[in-house]
Write a structure and sequence with these properties.
The chain folds into 3 domains: 3-163 and 468-593, no CATH class; 190-371, von Willebrand factor, type A domain (Rossmann fold, 3-Layer(aba) Sandwich), CATH 3.40.50; 602-800, no CATH class. With 805 residues, it is mainly beta.
């Protein structure tokens, strides 16, 4: 499967039935598991209609023996001040064309249940499949994930192509090729697998329960010819057995009994734990087997060796390229960049496990991807090929797929000879016979398709390589990725899109945040030196490519009813501009931007000093979710959502105590949630649950958890916002977060008074500025030294950004 281009759920004719104009909102969130959400708002005049059309392009990935196209259909979301009354029509059309032939196709998801199942039609030929989804108004309200406001769920189209045990399928076009390698009917290779499980205090409760459940399920799936080991760790290392043991029924039963007894406690010594896992695998080599090391952790290293670079170096030396390391980061408090880099250094991948009710299914789902190795030491060879993407792979697993793209030298297909050499259970194998097909532009395949696939894979691998490098080498690879991204119009963490309006109009700048951010603007990238991109017309859009290496990127197009040739507006993931829609007598519309660019939403924090004046201050940009305080010893998490109003503080703060106790604070009320019990609103009387006490004094919410005391001040009259103050610090040294910052100590550098400060033996340029001190009810204006947030925090601001409250 190559790039697939979709016009997603087409929900036409959104109608205003009020006398006055109203605003249509699409929802806004952040990077999710399988999508990236965004938001935009459009003013719609009374009794008028507008069509919303969503177009994007995606490279399908084969896992568990199938491709999945997941269509998120949530067109009828209610908004704060208005509910849409009805939806005239919604439809989804999916067309799949595979030269290799289609072995099966199925439609799943919440939108395929109950009455909505009758809205799906499916037609299959050897090489083609059509899936149509045309729900009536009544059907849109009856499914597992629907309600009175209509569709609110996913439609998942699942399929796979016909496969043989040969070299696979190679497509060629215009001097480029793409090779899909996924041989079938190969015998499985027995494996040696070691699971390294974090049991530190932060894993307490639901995380630990889900990990135990997933581990027991995984143990059930081990074949008797496999060998395995279990290591649990906190600040100490515990081996279930000192050596790998065979997966006999007796050993598996004992291992499952052990898994049921794993309890969370202590700190986190990742370095020693991973080294012990590597040591077990190195001590138990077996011919014709595949070794795998899997680490699951939810936190940063806090015990033993805590320097991230040292840990990565130690692990790389211990593994020495002999087997892959897969790092699973549980939740959003984990330093995922550290885990991802360590995985890539050792031929593995990093995977985030989302804290949710299905976390155990995510864990077992990942394991199933690597549970059945079929080949090791896979080398892809292309005589007559050049500018190849990755060609060496440590292992190939059942249900997956290896994809390689490149250029054909001099576009001479006669001298282009592909070959794959690998080691199977039966020894060394060579794959050389294949089906080669030429891709030509048609109504369903755009010109330059394979060239874009090659560029996409190349950029993706450049970005992964950049994670492993430093200094000049890193900058060189980033530059190559940037140049290729600009050439092919890809949105990456290092590029954004500048859309040029017709002369006399303004320009919108789109920015793509990193994972875990909502609209953080501390890193702003622009396309080159004044480079711009022409806005495609509707007819040109079919061949328009907007792709990002990690998630699907989408284009939202606002087009009028009646076909008026206005330019579509392209929106990214930073609070987009407002639009007015003006109408003429024929109901045609123009999009008129009210502001040309996005002004950063800035929030200024004050860091008090130890008997020094002035204080330090730093800015955090964007409507982001921040980690305010995390005390693992008390299982205490405090997260806050910054307001969209400049210098407006927080609009919501959530406090987690252990696994089933929650305090939610916004500008209107304070509620305490205990397990499944109904929420209690905190009024004049204090609420006490265990070690938690909450007192609501109106403009001051006092929250105590053991010896920790946090006061949340409510500022403002009309536009209220919250500001948290840590009145009593936790005693634990492992506490982190914005509120955990200790008072600063600095010295002014006398050679250049007022421009440099020395902090922690480092010198940094500062700016004389001012800030409002919201930590007091008076909100006094103070003088401060403005300093970069990354320097104050001693790590990137992104490390303090969480995905959800």
């Amino acid at each position: 499967m190559v790039f697939s281009e979709y016009t997603a759920l087409s929900c036409d004719n959104v109608t205003s039935s009020t006398k006055d104009p109203f605003r249509w909102y699409t929802s806004s969130s952040s990077v999710g598991r399988t999508l990236e959400e965004f938001k935009t708002s459009v003013n719609i005049a009374a009794h008028k209609k507008v069509t919303f059309e969503l177009t994007y392009e995606e490279l399908m990935k084969r896992t568990h023996g199938k491709y999945e196209l997941q269509i998120h259909a949530r067109p009828m979301q209610p908004v704060k001040d208005f509910k849409l009354l009805y939806l005239i029509s919604c439809q989804v059309d999916v067309y799949i064309h595979e030269k290799a032939g289609i072995s099966f196709v199925d439609v799943k998801g919440g939108l395929s249940t109950k009455a909505l199942a009758n809205a799906i039609t499916k037609t299959k030929a050897d090489e083609q499949v059509w899936v149509h989804f045309y729900p009536t108004v009544d059907q849109q309200k009856v499914c597992d994930s629907c309600g009175e406001h209509g569709l609110n769920g996913d439609l998942i189209v699942v399929y796979d192509v016909s496969r043989d045990s040969g070299l696979g399928e190679i497509k060629t076009s215009d001097g480029y090729f793409i090779h899909h390698f996924a041989p079938a009917s190969l015998p499985r290779i027995s494996k040696n697998v070691v699971f390294v499980i974090d049991r530190s205090g932060s894993m307490q409760g639901t995380k630990m329960e889900q990990t135990r459940r997933a581990l027991i399920h995984i143990l059930n799936d081990l074949a008797e010819e496999d060998f395995f080991g279990l290591i649990t760790f906190d600040d100490q290392i515990f081996h279930w057995k000192k050596e790998l043991v065979q997966a006999t029924s007796g050993n598996l039963q004992k291992a499952k009994t052990f898994a049921e007894t794993i309890e969370a406690r202590g700190a986190t010594d990742i370095n020693t734990a991973v080294l012990k896992g590597a040591e077990m695998l190195n001590a138990h080599p077996r011919e014709d087997s595949a070794s795998i090391l899997i680490l699951l952790t939810d936190g940063d290293p806090t015990s033993g060796e805590t320097n991230i670079e040292s840990i990565q170096s130690n692990v790389r030396r211990a593994i020495a390229g002999k087997f892959p390391l897969y790092c699973l980061g549980f939740g959003f408090d984990v330093n995922f960049n550290f885990l991802e880099k360590m995985s890539l250094q050792n031929n593995g991948v990093g995977r985030r496990i989302y804290e949710d009710s299905d976390a155990d299914l995510q864990l077992t789902g990942f394991y199933e991807e690597v549970a059945t190795p079929l080949l090791t030491d896979v080398t892809m060879i292309y005589l007559g090929g050049t500018n190849l993407t990755q060609t060496n792979f440590s292992q190939y697993y059942n249900g997956s797929e290896i994809v390689v793209a490149g250029q054909i030298t001099d576009n001479n297909i006669e001298t282009f000879i592909p070959q794959v050499v690998a080691v199977s259970r039966n020894g060394k194998m060579t794959f050389s016979k294949t089906k080669t097909s030429t891709v030509t532009p048609t109504g369903t395949v755009s010109e330059g398709l394979l060239q874009r696939v090659w560029a996409y894979l190349t950029v993706k691998q450049f970005l992964e390589k950049a994670l492993l490098l430093s200094g000049a080498e890193k900058e060189k690879v980033k530059k190559e990725a940037l140049e290729l991204s600009l050439k092919y119009s890809f949105v990456t963490p290092h590029t954004s899109m500048v859309v040029t309006k017709p002369q006399g109009e303004n320009t919108d700048v789109l920015h793509k945040p990193k994972e875990g951010e909502r609209s953080s603007q501390d890193q702003q990238y622009h396309i080159g030196h004044g480079q711009t991109m022409k806005i495609p017309t509707r007819s040109e859009l079919k061949n328009f490519s907007l792709t990002e290496p990690r998630f699907m990127i989408i284009i939202i197009i606002f087009n009028p009813i009646g076909g008026y040739p206005s330019h579509p507006g392209l929106h990214g993931f930073r609070g987009p501009p407002d639009y007015d829609l003006s109408y003429d007598d024929d109901l045609t519309m123009d999009l008129i931007p009210l502001r040309a660019t996005f002004a950063p939403v800035s929030h200024r924090f004050v860091l008090k000093t130890e008997n020094q004046s002035p204080s330090l201050c730093f800015d955090i940009h964007g409507e982001v979710l921040l980690k305010l305080l995390h005390d693992p010893s008390k299982e205490l998490y405090v997260n806050g959502e910054l307001d969209s109003v400049k210098n407006g503080g927080f609009k919501k703060i959530v406090i987690h105590v252990q696994t089933d106790l929650l305090v939610k604070v916004d500008t209107n009320e304070v509620t305490v949630h205990e397990g499944q019990a109904a929420a209690r609103t905190v009024g004049e009387d204090p609420v006490t649950v265990g070690s938690l006490t909450v007192i609501n004094r109106g403009n001051e919410i006092d929250i105590a958890v053991g010896d920790v005391r946090i006061v949340i001040l409510v500022h403002g009259n009309y536009n209220k916002f919250l500001w948290p103050v840590l009145r009593q610090r936790p005693s634990a040294d492992s506490t982190e977060g914005i509120l955990a910052l200790k008072p600063a100590v600095y010295q002014e550098v006398q050679q250049v008074p007022g421009t440099k400060l020395r902090i922690n033996d480092q010198e940094i340029h500062v700016t004389s500025s001012s800030a409002v001190d919201y930590s007091t009810s008076s909100s006094a204006q103070i003088h401060c030294w403005l300093i970069s947030a990354d320097f104050v925090l001693q790590r990137p601001v992104n490390d303090f950004v969480v995905a959800k409250l």
